[in-house]
Each structure stands twice: as structure tokens, then as C-alpha cells.
């Protein structure tokens, strides 16, 4: 999760919403990513998706069997879908996202028995650091907007 936080800080430094993720297999990081939505003007490049894409390239497979994903903030609906589709074994996330979270907050996508794959979940790991980073990002963004007016 420390590595996911490092990714989140990279996003922060380039003015992106600071969320970071890594995919781990056998104690090795095989994919990492941070949010790049503004940079690429692409609504789908969330941290989790970037990390999953890299992990798939590393393993040369769309199935991320026995892989775990660490992400600083609770995954959204799109990312939860990507996690289920890539057959990730377990997700660790830092802080909950009451407005868009699709793991515990708004939906429980990863444990939905109607889907053909369920993912184990653990949360709270470095959650304070992750949410602190988000809060200071949005605080700075609000300040910037005020200065523009
Ligand atoms: Zn997402």
C-alpha cells in the first residue's frame, strides 16, 4: 500500500485526483498506475485500470490469477468491473469513497454472488494517509478556483 500511495502522490504532483494502485503477484509488483484522466483527457484511465493493464502486459494474460490489487481509494463502478473481469484474487483499499465507491459504499460489486467471480476485500490500510492526500488536493483545487475568479 506504500507503493500505491507513492503512485497517488505522482498523480497529485501533476494535478490529477491523487489515487494510486499496484498489482502484486508473489510479493512482486507487476503493474502500477495512477489516475491520468486529465492528462490523457480520457475518463477511463483510473489508477486501477492503468495498473491492471500493465499487469496483463507483464503476465501476457488477461487473467490476473493469484494477483492482489492495492489501491488508495475505494474503486468506482468501472474499476470494480475491471477487477472482476481480470479475476483479481483480493483487493486492499485505503479509504472509502461514499460518493462513488462500488465495493462497500454504494454497491458491493466485488462480493456480488450473481457475478461469475468474487473478490476478497480488505480496507483501511493506510486509509488516513490516502484520504488526507485527497482532502489536501481538493482544498488546493478550491483555492485555485477562487483565485481565478
Ligand atoms: Zn475507477
TrEMBL record:
Name of the top EC class for this enzyme: hydrolase
Record: active site: 48
Tagged with keyword Cytoplasm: no
UniProt cofactor(s): Zn(2+)
Gene3D superfamilies: Cytidine Deaminase, domain 2 (3.40.140.10)
Record's cofactor remark: Binds 1 zinc ion per subunit.
Residue span(s) of domain CMP/dCMP-type deaminase: 1-122
UniProt keyword terms in alphabetical order: Hydrolase, Metal-binding, tRNA processing, Zinc
BP terms from Gene Ontology: tRNA wobble adenosine to inosine editing
EC number: 3.5.4.33
Listed InterPro entries: APOBEC/CMP_deaminase_Zn-bd, CMP_dCMP_dom, Cytidine_deaminase-like, MafB19-deam, tRNA_aden_deaminase
Reaction catalyzed: adenosine(34) in tRNA + H2O + H(+) = inosine(34) in tRNA + NH4(+)
Listed Pfam families: MafB19-deam
Residues reported to bind Zn(2+): 46, 76, 79
GO molecular function: tRNA-specific adenosine-34 deaminase activity; zinc ion binding
Family: Belongs to the cytidine and deoxycytidylate deaminase family. ADAT2 subfamily.
Assembly and oligomerization: Homodimer.
Function as written in the Swiss-Prot or TrEMBL entry: Catalyzes the deamination of adenosine to inosine at the wobble position 34 of tRNA(Arg2).
PANTHER family: CYTOSINE DEAMINASE FAMILY MEMBER (PTHR11079), TRNA-SPECIFIC ADENOSINE DEAMINASE (PTHR11079:SF202)
Protein name: tRNA-specific adenosine deaminase
Amino acid at each position: 500500500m506504500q507503493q500505491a500511495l507513492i503512485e497517488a502522490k505522482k498523480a497529485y504532483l501533476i494535478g490529477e485526483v491523487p489515487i494510486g494502485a499496484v498489482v502484486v503477484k508473489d510479493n512482486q509488483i507487476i503493474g502500477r498506475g495512477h489516475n491520468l484522466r486529465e492528462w490523457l483527457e480520457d475518463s477511463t484511465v483510473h489508477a486501477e485500470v492503468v495498473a491492471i493493464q500493465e499487469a496483463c502486459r507483464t503476465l501476457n494474460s488477461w487473467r490476473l490469477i493469484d494477483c492482489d490489487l492495492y489501491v488508495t481509494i475505494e474503486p468506482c463502478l468501472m474499476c470494480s468491473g475491471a477487477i472482476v473481469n481480470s479475476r483479481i484474487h483480493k483487493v486492499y483499499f485505503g479509504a472509502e469513497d461514499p460518493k462513488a465507491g462500488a465495493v462497500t459504499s454504494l454497491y458491493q460489486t466485488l462480493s456480488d454472488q450473481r457475478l461469475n467471480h468474487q473478490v476478497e476485500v480488505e480496507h483501511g490500510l493506510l486509509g488516513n494517509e490516502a484520504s488526507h492526500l485527497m482532502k489536501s488536493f481538493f482544498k488546493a483545487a478550491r483555492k485555485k478556483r477562487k483565485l481565478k475568479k
